[in-house]
Amino acid sequence: MAIAKAERLMNLALCLLGTRRPLSKRELRESVEAYLEAGSDDSFNRMFERDKDDLRELGLVIETVESLDGEIGYLARRDSNRLPPITLDAEEAAALGLAAKVWQQARLAGAASGALQKLRAAGLPEDVDPYEAHSALEPRIPVHEAAFEPLMLACRDRRPVLFDYRKANAAQPEPRHVEPWALECWRGHWYLAGFDRDRGAERVFRLSRITGRVRSRGARFTAPVPDVVTVRETVASWAGETADRSALIRLRTDAGYPLRAKATEVRELGDGWAELEIPYGHGLDAWLVEFGPDVVVLEPAELRADVVDRLRAVAKG
Hints:
The chain is α+β, with helices and mostly antiparallel strands.
């Protein structure tokens, strides 16, 4: 099936690139052998529309032209589908290869591999191994959340979305209407930045807390998209990365490695617990709640009270 579709797409692309005038659906159906086998006009129309969309997704510029008698025709002009010469030195080739390798285990693996093949066809040096200089590195960007791909496409297409989101201190998720701006990975977690329509302000969402399916909305964006979206800076601020105060917590010895990694001081107590001093900033209470009974907040009092309130809210459901 995959080979048959690839052959059909190739034949359609050759027809559209080889014609000097727009070809109607009828003419294309007569020119592509696979279309002749379509059982009905409806079957052919569905197949043709899918193929046309697939070719456009692959980068082929297909024009739709209406003749004087109202007939619709299609063609792909060669000058619109010709890349300028591309010259890359060894360092640039290595950087592109490394970037493609990063996505090998992510949902963009196919797109990254295809992009690299196109660049090779367009002039990427064949005598340069993009991975050779980085053989000791195995960069990966894991993407396990089902929400990643629809959100990535929504960011690209500037399309509002609706999803259910469970905050760290909430037992049940709630719907969020968002105009997505950008996705970014920070410390092993993916985050979405966008305009929250319900709250009328910019918000950042952790993808692992999105539940259910991401639904697209037909409306356009209502808020301007900023030139620079500072996802990491926002999350870092919420996590206390930019804090100028310290908090004192008690942590089980075999738990909470992320807390230990950011601690400024660690004192082992010898009874299965340790005392840690960690930076204290906005959002630290929500992060500490995620560690449940493995963490006890000692100081300051307001942080302890915030964590207790969040735990009580979760317990109430």
